[in-house]
Design brief:
The chain is an alpha+beta fold. It has a domain at about 1-120 and about 235-265: 3-Layer(aba) Sandwich (Peroxisomal Thiolase, Chain A, domain 1). The protein is built from eight helices and eleven strands. The strands form three sheets. Strands 1, 2, 3, 4, 5, 10 and 11 form a seven-stranded mixed β-sheet that branches. It has a two-stranded antiparallel sheet with strand order 6-7. It is globular, with a radius of gyration of 20 Å. Belongs to the thiolase-like superfamily. Thiolase family.
């Protein structure tokens, strides 16, 4: 049997904007999930050939955010590490690239996922290098400028989501029902995060528990007067990370795969 399988994974709790995870950088959050994903998969750090982590807001994180996370997780320096940016799909694309690399024979074990601290996204001074000679300057929010706004038009990502919802004919009721189900499910797989101030244990996601489900149907549209997307059924501004252990399995009996707790296979 030849297969590519996801053998366990981990995530931090999702912290709200300027919430409980504010003191932690994206690489610190990523390191916690990489380390735990390896433990849960029954691996040793030197079993992993590469780490691939998505990160949309790398400004101010220093060089190589994924490599920082990999080293903080205790993996040897010989382990490859790469940071990728595909906006909201960055973590998913990291897993896809891991599967492609394994399929191509470049590696047998990869840890892949995503990490972000939207809270700690810095402000930017676009003209500071050449100097502000006269008049008013402008400060850009890295979170909006490089993350939430379209590069060509400046439109917010949520407005494009509203366009897509309209084109697909999704109703407000459908979207609210999905949001409520999602909120009710987002309460599992918490792991400990180490920081300079000691271990930080966040035992639940912040945003889902801040939501009032009864009020969701009455919220105003966020991006269009008669729109269907609201603050409740749209994605929130959050901090957190997740990681998966991905294997190439060759000629392994089904019984052993059951012991490995395979969660998905190609």
């Amino acid at each position: 049997m030849t297969d590519i399988v996801i053998v366990n994974g981990a995530r931090t709790a999702m912290g709200g904007f300027q919430g409980s995870l504010t003191s932690l950088t994206a690489p610190e959050l990523g390191a916690a999930t990489i380390k735990e994903a390896i433990v849960r998969a029954g691996l040793q750090p030197n079993d992993v050939q590469e780490v691939i982590m998505g990160c949309v807001l790398p400004a101010g994180l220093k060089q190589g955010p994924a490599r920082q996370a990999m080293r903080k997780a205790g993996l040897p320096d010989s382990t490859g590490a790469v940071t990728i940016n595909k906006l909201c799909g960055s973590g998913m694309k990291a897993v896809m690239q891991a599967a492609d690399a394994i399929k191509a024979g470049s590696a047998e074990v990869i840890v892949a996922g995503g990490m972000e601290s939207m809270t700690n996204a810095p402000y930017l001074l676009p003209k500071a290098r050449s100097g502000y000679r006269m008049g008013h300057g402008e400060v850009k929010d890295h979170m909006f400028f490089d993350g939430l706004e379209d590069a060509e038009t400046g439109r917010l990502m949520g407005s494009f989501a509203q366009d897509m919802a309209n084109s697909k004919g999704y109703t407000r009721q459908q979207m609210d029902d999905f949001a409520i189900r999602s909120l009710q499910r987002a309460q599992k797989a918490i792991t400990e995060v180490s920081s300079r101030k000691g271990d930080v244990v966040i035992d639940q996601d912040e945003q889902p528990f801040n939501a009032n489900i009864d009020k969701i149907p009455s919220l105003r549209p966020a991006f269009a007067k008669d729109g269907t997307i609201t603050a409740a059924n749209a994605s929130s501004i959050s901090d957190g990370a997740s990681a998966l252990s991905i294997f190439m399995v060759v000629h392994v009996p089904s019984a052993i795969l059951l012991v490995l707790q395979v969660h998905a296979s190609s």
